[in-house]
Design goal:
The protein is α+β, with helices and mostly antiparallel strands and about 35 residues long. Helices cover about 35% and strands about 25% of the residues. The chain starts with 6 loop residues before the first strand and ends with a strand.
Length: about 35
């Protein structure tokens, strides 16, 4: 799944599942907004 030119808002991004989600989204090309 390519997420180029998409923005993802992820809450709880510091550890655990939120961190893993951020890493996956970034790997797929999304820009991230972390909270």
């Amino acid at each position: 799944m390519k997420l180029d030119n998409r923005v993802a808002l992820v809450t709880g991004a510091a550890k655990g599942m939120g961190r893993d989600i951020c890493l996956t989204l970034a790997r797929e090309g999304a820009d991230l907004a972390l909270a």
